[in-house]
TrEMBL record:
Comp. bias regions, Polar residues: 980-989
InterPro entries named in the record: ARM-like, ARM-type_fold, Pianissimo_fam, Pianissimo_N, Rictor_IV, RICTOR_M, RICTOR_V
Rapamycin-insensitive companion of mTOR domain location: 1040-1120
GO CC annotation terms, alphabetical: TORC2 complex
Record-annotated Rapamycin-insensitive companion of mTOR N-terminal domain positions: 95-489
Sequence segments annotated as region (Disordered): 1-31, 968-1000
Descriptive protein name: REM-1 domain-containing protein
Gene Ontology terms describing biological process: TORC2 signaling
SUPFAM superfamilies, alphabetized: ARM repeat
Domain Rapamycin-insensitive companion of mTOR middle: 548-784
Length: 1278
């Protein structure tokens, strides 16, 4: 066996890796005991799972727990005393005793806290230098169950356990040994501060395993390798667990992972790894970037710019090339998705802002390349982060499988929906989330404009190398124009667009852009606008048809075949339609037709008469027995005929006196329960309405109800009475419900006629199903019609008292949609004047939100104040400040609208959304509300004071060398002297607040105070926080969440009508001397927490909702958006420095600056003196180096093994083999071994190179000598 493939001192079983799930029986009768043992027969468990190995503890019942623990302790001590090095040859006996120890520790978990860890380690230490891998596995397992505190880990580290772990992870040993070693490392993470004892060498050993498996299977750049030997076979499941371990350590101790090359590995895995691994690594890096002290090791996020390199390897002709080339395209799709996710949070935006958003400029610059695939992917990314269109190819990519599986896992009961929705949810107009997300869109849009996106898109359109790419570029360009005008101030986008237009474009390109722009305008045209255009076109067609001379009229009548055939199936109904929409609508032509062609109207009206049974018996759908191909066209012509006759007086008189009307009245009387007229088979029975053209009579009545003349005819023939009787009959019987539904669907309730009385009657006395049908089909039409608002609102207000809960819920939904969603707040007084039941409204989520909108008017505020709702809401709001429900609602809502593919949010997509506007936003909309809130302003004082206090406590604002002058608005008026507020102390919301002396401290000084206190304990912390305060980090996280919630609340106050006034210290001398808006501005500019910077950015932007806010923003050098549309206004603002300077002004941090090298065994101070020095050159009787030069040469050659040049590596390997052959005794030296360990720790060696290095040494003998040396040195110190 070659030297590099062997491991001297290791058992021949080192290359054996059985399946630990197969439980083989053990037979002790074998002659060669050592060779007859298998890992399965020795009952050593394999790794349980990839999430920290959950142990199944079968605790035996005991009547007396204390006696059980005491008995277990005696048993444990007895077994441990009998475990000694003298029994090392009897492998089976040793492992049996180890299993008994583990069983005791599993049954009695408290036992590990009572035992002496030094006795356990000393008793089993011989197993680590035993040649049988089974004993090493058992030793790791015993130690894993013995870990209790950080002191126990410390003793293990001092006993050279980490060296054994590094060797086990670096040499070709059974998989189970690596698994047990990794389990022990992961057990360290379960102990508080246990991760601090993990060395850089352990991290580098894990990294080498991961990189070895990646090079063998996943890296396209890796050269082809020979078939793998069993000793190098590492399953992907173990590799994934190694990755997960590094990720968990990175969150706890990022500096250890950094020095071990873990972060570099994570970025590589994001690009080259599978979707699940890449996603996990990105989430870990995002978590690291959220910690100010940890992002140093990612150079403040600059390292993630390397993700953009994935686009450089994509080739258009990948289908005709190797499979490795196609992998580049798939990786580009995966990284595009991850970048999209990354850029939809403030961590990602600020991380990519280095060097004036260099990362985004690199991505945008790829648009000028020659690869159409790259252009497609980049434009998909731009469309997605601008929230124009979701990634279209996601469903066909590898990431979609991960999303689907997560959706199944996270769905209730493990049952997923059929498909994961991959479209953006439409933003509700006039909503909180629309303002916030539009602000985000505006920021990203401005960054992309500054990156030169528009000229590059123009180039793509002008060159037109690929029609699909050109079409997508045109779509992106038109949407960029639209969003620019909606979301950005003119000065922030005008130069970018005008400079792009200076480029000379071809006429074809200009035509494409203009066509796309017109199509977009047509798509976004309002429904009312489209109906107006449609009506105008129809009027033009009718007017043109009415202008007809005698010859054309004669030809038209001839083509109808009304005078040549009595069979209606032979008539040309299209020509009859032209006749009804043209000449018959003109009174002069009507007289001409009656005089010259009197039988035309006679035959036509006769056909429609019910008791002629021609029209009323014709089939509603095409039938083989009839020649009529389009039966429904006959109904349409009948409606056009009645509409034409009602267009002038002569036609009205003709229709009113025609036999059609009394017969229509009679067929309605047939189904009316009070008319006295009956029929065996009524023409308007449910069966005939569903199968024959008799449904047309209902539509005829609907046409009559649409004009004043028609209403007169309906009244003359007592249709109102007949319909009223049908409505009354519906109360007790549902026989005519089909007829009633069709009547309600066709009758016109726009005009103030008796039909409205009938509609009110339906909504009052009818059955529940009829009321719901009316609400779903009639009310929405009236809400869209001018002049019907008063009637509909009165009707809906009355329905709030209906006995049906479904009717009440639907009524509240319509009121909420009309006033809140569509923003018709100006008409809210119509509802308030009806004094609707606040009790009923407050029982529904949308009703509560509707009640809050009452606060926007003086009448509404007074109504709520009279009913005590204002005080109750204020009390509930104060109680809500003790929880994080408001923050969770905001974050959950924003994620739902920002991440359409997030499986976590699928379960909440269809839930009713809670309003994200805070109660204070509504309360401060009127002067009365301002006065009320100002009378109880201790709530606001507490919020502001605690906001300042948290900022000071956490030192969130970084001090800059160049001081930024406060905004002018702080000194624009003479400030009254501060007056101490007595109410602030007596009526404080949280009674445990300390003194208020910090109220008048400047936030620019940021004096750290230790008096910040919140009314929570570890036991009483609200469950909604999802936190349990155990450590200082937990407390800091909790305070950050409280600060986020306070900032959102202050932003809501600032965006309300009287919010700026109540926040200004000038109007309230009892408040602190510093303006909270100035604090928010400093948080945006200098906060160490990036998410806080983003939230502060949004709060400053929301100040543009009032004139006072705009003035303050102007003093802060912010510009506001002029988009105050009455239908859907947007109040946004952006800093002027977005024009050129770096937006977030990030510096590149150097993780190596002023940092000490992290030793092999962690950096835990003087307690690790033995490990820090590694006992080098100790005079312990083992002998000194005979040939120091040869020793140094071996170390130098080992160092050359890390060379990137294969020639140097092969030469060093050859020389080391030569030294081993001629002077092999030097590789038995513990000192050289420890020096090699330190060298491997400092350098970067591949997994196979590690195999070779440790294969040079007699590891078993060296480890035995190290243990003996450690015991002697310990005995000497004692």
């Amino acid at each position: 066996m070659p030297a590099e493939d062997s491991a001297p001192g290791r058992s021949p079983l080192a290359s054996f890796s059985p399946d630990p799930l197969d439980k083989a029986s053990f037979s002790p009768s074998s002659d060669t005991r050592l060779r007859s043992y298998t890992l399965d027969s020795l009952n050593i468990s394999s790794i349980e799972n990839s999430k920290g190995y959950q142990r199944a503890e079968n605790i035996r019942p005991s009547n007396s727990p204390e006696q059980n623990v005491e008995a277990a302790s005696w048993t444990f001590t007895e077994i441990l005393q009998n475990l000694s090095v003298r029994e090392k040859d009897d492998v089976y006996l040793v492992i049996t005793k180890c299993n008994q120890l583990v069983e005791l520790l599993q049954e009695t978990p408290s036992l590990k806290h009572d035992m002496a860890i030094d006795m356990v380690v000393n008793r089993i230490q011989f197993m680590f230098y035993h040649p049988a891998p089974q004993l090493r596995c058992a030793a790791y397992r015993v130690l894993r169950y013995s870990v209790a505190t950080s002191d126990s880990i410390l003793f293990m580290v001092q006993s050279k356990i980490l060296i054994s772990i590094i060797v086990s992870l670096s040499v070709p040993c059974p998989l189970l040994e690596k698994q047990e070693a990794l389990k022990l490392v992961r057990e360290f993470l379960n102990v508080p501060d246990g991760a601090a004892f993990i060395s850089v060498g352990v991290i580098k050993a894990l990294v080498s395993i991961i990189e070895h498996e990646t090079d063998e299977t996943g890296n396209p750049n890796a050269p082809p390798t020979a078939p793998q030997n069993d000793q190098f076979a590492i399953p992907s499941s173990f590799t994934k667990l190694c990755i997960e371990t590094i990720c968990e350590i990175a969150v706890l101790k990022p500096h250890i992972v950094f020095h071990g090359g873990g972060f570099r590995l994570m970025i590589t895995l994001i690009i080259n790894g599978s979707s699940d691994i890449a996603t996990s690594c990105l989430l870990v890096l995002m978590s690291i970037l959220d910690k100010p002290e940890a992002r140093l090791f990612l150079r403040n996020g600059l390292d993630l710019t390397s993700l953009t390199s994935v686009y450089s390897l994509v080739d258009d002709d990948d289908h005709s090339k190797s499979s490795n080339t196609r992998k580049f395209h798939n990786r580009a799709l995966k990284v595009t998705f991850l970048i999209s996710v990354f850029l939809k949070c403030w961590t990602g935006i600020i991380c990519f802002s280095h060097n004036d958003f260099e990362a985004l400029r690199i991505i945008v610059s790829k648009l000028k390349g020659n690869s159409n695939k790259v252009r497609n992917i980049i434009m998909d990314l731009l469309l997605d982060i601008l929230r124009i269109q979701a990634l279209p190819w996601l469903e066909d990519s590898s990431i979609y499988d991960l999303i689907t599986s997560l959706n199944v896992f996270l769905s209730p009961g493990g049952q997923s929906t059929d498909t994961v929705d991959n479209k953006y949810i439409e933003l509700p107009p006039n909503s909180f989330e629309r303002t916030v997300i539009s602000h985000y869109q505006g920021l990203i849009l401005k960054v992309l404009l500054s990156s030169g996106m528009v000229p590059l898109i123009f180039d793509i359109i002008d060159k037109n190398t690929d029609e699909e790419v050109t079409s997508k570029a045109t779509f992106l360009l038109t949407n960029v124009f639209k969003l620019s005008m909606e979301l950005l101030p003119k000065q922030l986008f005008q130069d970018h667009l005008s400079n792009a237009y200076k480029k000379s474009l071809s006429l074809t390109s200009i035509y494409k852009i203009e066509t796309a722009a017109k199509l977009q305008m047509k798509t976004h045209m309002g429904e009312r606008k489209r109906s107006e255009v449609k009506s105008h076109v129809k009027d033009m067609i009718i007017e043109n048809r009415m202008k007809m001379d005698d010859a054309n009229l004669k030809t038209l009548i001839s083509r109808t075949k009304l005078l040549t055939s009595k069979d209606y199936e032979d008539w040309d109904w299209a020509q009859i339609s032209h006749l009804c929409q043209g000449p018959l609508r003109d009174q002069k032509r009507f007289f001409d037709i009656q005089e010259k062609y009197p039988k035309v109207l006679k035959y036509l009206m006769s056909f429609y008469r019910p008791f002629k049974y021609r029209f009323s018996r014709a089939p509603l759908r095409p039938d083989e027995r009839f020649k009529l191909k389009h039966p429904k066209r006959v109904i349409l012509v009948g409606c056009q005929l009645i509409e034409a006759l009602l267009n002038h007086e002569a036609g009205f008189d003709y229709l009113a006196s025609n036999k059609l009307m009394p017969q229509m009245a009679e067929i309605f009387a047939q189904v009316s329960p009070c008319s006295g007229i009956t029929a065996e088979d009524p023409i308007l029975s449910t069966r005939k309405l569903e199968t024959t053209l008799s449904i047309g009579y209902v539509k005829f009545v609907g046409v009559l109800s649409s004009s004043n003349k028609g209403l007169v005819i309906l009244e003359e023939w007592q249709f109102y009475q007949l319909i009223g009787d049908i409505i009354d009959g519906n109360v007790e019987s549902s026989s005519n419900v089909h007829l009633l539904f069709n009547l309600l669907n066709n009758l016109n309730f726009v005009s103030d006629s008796p039909l409205r009385i009938l509609l009110s009657k339906v909504l009052t006395v009818s059955r529940e199903e009829t009321k719901l049908f009316t609400l779903e089909n009639v009310i929405p039409k009236l809400l869209k019609t001018e002049g019907c608002y008063d009637y509909v609102i009165r009707t809906l207000s009355n329905l709030l008292y209906d006995e049906s809960k479904a009717v009440v819920a639907l009524t509240i939904t319509y009121l909420h949609e009309y006033f809140v969603i569509k923003g018709n707040i100006s008409r809210i007084n119509l509802l308030i004047d009806m004094r609707p039941s606040t009790l009923v409204l407050s029982k529904h989520t949308k009703g509560k939100e509707l009640l809050l909108t009452f606060c926007t008017t003086t009448k509404g505020f007074r109504l709520l104040h009279e009913n005590g709702l204002i005080q109750r809401n204020l009390t509930a709001t104060i109680r809500g400040l003790q929880t994080l429900d408001y923050l969770n609602n905001i974050e959950g809502t924003l994620k739902k609208y920002m991440y359409p593919f997030s499986s976590v949010l699928q379960s909440v997509r269809n839930k009713s959304d809670e309003d994200c506007h805070h109660f204070f936003y509504y309360l401060l909309s009127t002067e009365d509300g301002f006065i009320f809130f100002n009378s109880q302003r201790t709530v606001l004082d507490d919020i502001i004071n605690k906001t300042f206090a948290i900022v000071q406590k956490l030192h969130l604002i970084e001090t800059k060398t160049e001081a930024v002058a406060p905004p002018d608005f702080l000194y624009s008026r003479t400030r009254p002297p501060p007056v101490e507020s007595t109410s602030s102390k007596t009526n404080s919301i949280e009674s445990d607040e300390t003194d208020d002396s910090y109220k008048f401290e400047s936030p620019t000084k940021l004096n750290a105070r230790g008096d910040l206190s919140f009314s929570y304990t570890k036991e009483s912390l609200p469950e909604s926080t999802g936190l349990s305060i155990k450590t200082a980090e937990d407390e800091e996280e909790y305070m950050l969440m409280r600060l986020k919630q306070y900032l959102w609340i202050i932003g809501e106050i600032a965006s309300s009508k009287y919010g700026i006034q109540i926040l200004d210290p000038l109007y309230n001398p009892s408040m602190r001397n510093d303006h909270v808006i100035d604090l928010i501005l400093q948080l945006y500019r200098n906060s160490k927490d990036w998410q806080i910077r983003g939230i502060a950015f949004h709060q400053l932007g929301k100040m543009a909702a009032t004139n006072e806010g705009i003035e303050m923003l102007d003093d802060m050098s912010w510009v506001s958006v002029d988009n105050h549309s009455p239908q859907d206004p947007l109040y946004l603002a952006y800093p002027e420095l977005m024009q050129g300077d770096d937006l977030f002004n990030l510096e590149v941090l150097n993780p190596y600056q002023d940092s000490t090298y992290i030793s092999l065994f962690g950096n835990h101070g003087d307690e690790l003196w033995a490990n820090q020095q590694l006992d080098l050159d100790a005079d312990d009787g083992l002998g000194l180096q005979i040939n120091q030069k040869l020793d140094d040469k071996a170390l130098s050659l080992i160092n050359h093994l890390s060379s990137v040049l294969g020639k140097i590596e092969r030469k060093a390997m050859k020389e080391l083999n030569s030294i081993k052959s001629n002077n092999g005794e030097i590789f038995e030296s513990p000192n050289l071994f420890l020096k090699t360990i330190r060298l491997v720790d400092k350098g970067k060696f591949k997994y196979k190179t590690r195999n070779f290095i440790f294969g040079l040494f007699d590891v078993v003998k060296i480890m035995e000598n190290l243990v003996k040396r450690s015991r002697r040195s310990t005995g000497g110190r004692k």
